[in-house]
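User: two proteins, same treatment. go.

Assistant:
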Amino acid sequence: MTSPQTRPAHGPDHTDVLIVGAGPTGLALACDLARRGVAALLVERAGALFPGSRGKGLQPRTQEVLDDLGVLPAVRAHGAPYPRMVSWQNGERQGEWELVERNLPDPTVPYPDVWMIPQWRTQEILRTRLLELDGRVRFGTALTGLDQYPDRVEATLTGPDGVARTVSARYLVAADGGRSTVRRAVGITMAGERIDPRPALVADVGIDGLDRDNWHVWPHGPGGPLLLCPLPGTTDFQLFAQFDPDETPDTSPEGVCRVIAARTHLAESAVGEVRWSSDFRPRAALAERFREGRVFLAGDAAHIHSPAGGQGLNTSIQDAYNLGWKLGQVLRHGAPEELLDSYEAERLPIAADVLEISTRLHRAGGVQDGGLRRGPRTEQLGLGYEHGPLTVEARVGLTGDALRAGERAPDAPLDAAPATADAGADARSAAPGTRLFDVFRGPQVTVLAVGHELPAVPAGVRTHRVDGGVAAEAYGRGIFVIRPDGYLGLATHEPADLPGYLARLGLHRP
């Protein structure tokens, strides 16, 4: 990729990681790196954050990620559970149903249900957190040139003033969406298919005359189905309308008003301000690889999903969560660079699996009662890295339902739990009401001993011991290395297995 002919560039700026794209993926990654003390520069071509509600559903696993990043209280305060769906025909309500399964309380799953919050609000919350961590976003800044070297990436960034500047980074992460400039610059192809020939219109719009307790559906409206979903924390509804394959949706405010009036019992006068609108054709696509040298792909730059199942934004944030701690270990703790190879090895199969889920849900059938019902597979709690390169299950004789290395580390209450400590610090008892997620929270690796003495560990590793209760029941007896992204890396009974495994993560005895 060649740099544009602009005014001369200044000397190169330097950073550890350059992140291109300030959507949920880039913002989550920037937050994670900032709390690890990794210098990161986040740039965004647009002049502001994305303004629409598009990815509005946060799955249970993503809520756990946001809990660890310190933003979940704000997310919960500005969101709400998914409302029940209600169908309309000839101006009359036809019946209600659930789009998502409601889960029973479980002490190992603190956030059991999907949470609705507009994407723009999620991004605002992440940006606020980034500012708290002394990070920032350069808006109006486009990547216009890219060269790779054995020890660095040099990127040309053109700002709103038209001046091109060179930034030298140890690594670059493409979080710049489905039309990724970075992905094309490094020559990574993306294979995919259009999974529905019908174009769709999405908009955020004010509506009078509809209750906000339901997600309203007109499945047989003239011209195609239409849905209006109340957006929590706002006075708006999200519009979704499908069209015939040969139509082009009119995204103007007038076009949005007309389609609502044509397909529902609402008059055009009931439609208020159209705050954002867009059209798209549902597509599923997967990059052939997630890394080229020192450049990594994350989020929509690596995988594109149908909105069915609410998987795209969630998978993208979890990409960032997987990559962030590995970059931190390499750049701040001297972990071998081979650790970064595990990003693609772990996340590409996950993305492929999630694409299959969302595509199948999309093709399962429209917006009729139950047609797009979501359940355990969309919640992403069961996704893991059992066959990944960082997974070591050293115990034998496990029962079929036993928790294994590579799986998500469950939460559990610790009302009477002893001995939590960072290496080199005195062990301290967990305060009443503490949970395992409180122990795990933060950028560190944690060693959890269940029914074992606390082992000796290198500096920077947190340890915790439990001998009973929900935690012991959930984990079973063993010594577990909890990765910074909340998955079980090593599961063993032998303390002698720890040094070699932790060394792979850049954690050595002093």
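Protein 2:
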Amino acid sequence: MLQALGLGPAEEAVYNALLPRPSASAQDLAQQAGLEQAETVRILRELAARGLVLVTSGTDREAAASVRRGSDGPAARYRLAPPSVALAPLLVEQRNALHRAETAVSVLTEQYRSIAAHPAGSVVEVVVGVEQVAHRFHQLQRGAQWELLTFLTGAPLAVPPTDTDASESDALDRGVDFRVVATKDHLDGHEAAQDIRAALVAGLELRLVETLPLKLVVADRERAMVPLDVADSGDEPSAVVVHRSGLLTALVHLFEQEWARARPLYNTPTEVRVRTEPEQRPTAGELEVLALLLAGVSDRRAASQLGVSIRTVERRTRRLMDLAKADSRLQLGWHAARAGWL
């Protein structure tokens, strides 16, 4: 946590070891932090120089001198300076550094665009190779401040699903508005369906369609990335990164069109607010089936995604219809919305 303020792992370990104690010796802190005593003394000396740690020994001032000499006198004890006072300058320093970095990125971006060999170079950037494509993909997702728009279709060519999941989780944790349109076959497989349900719980909005024309990720409507088709199996994966332009506007418009026609895949709540007896409420497994059916997923595909048999899906659907007193799946969907099942 304190590494974000410029402290190293060992410094943070010593700081945290001292945090719950009114005061402590270097020997006590070395044992708690798992460091050598000489290393602990050096760290305490640096923390004291930065105003994060105070040196005390009752009325004995020799302790402070021992720290300046790089040794630990027998009477030397240490306590933390108030974090609200001592850490505030570090926070301001990091904020200023981040602001300078943002300014530098803006300047470099403008310089890069201005020296492009072709006018289109400032609009479209071609990225070739697995590592380069994956790197630019993560840059887009991790650099998004408020919105991510994504098409998911087909098998991944350059970015492993585990890396994609990590980027999605990081964006959702930052509060980024994350909307995804995926083809129904993209959810095939129990593990993929589990990952999607976890993302829905975290705040992801997902809608399903039969087909999509391309893969796509758009960050903050400022830049987008579109993988290029691989002509031969031996070709390296490649993609184009599109910056603000009419082309980017067209890609955003395409996403909104697909989003409008797609069917939503709802998150299934852990508690169902229905005014019925407990035995007449849908179970979590039944709600998972309901969410997939409302998204237009077939019984067979739902069974594959949930890791159950098709008979189990049919049984759960039948019980849902009995609970809703519905004669058709259309009536079941209407009752589920009215009763707040989803």
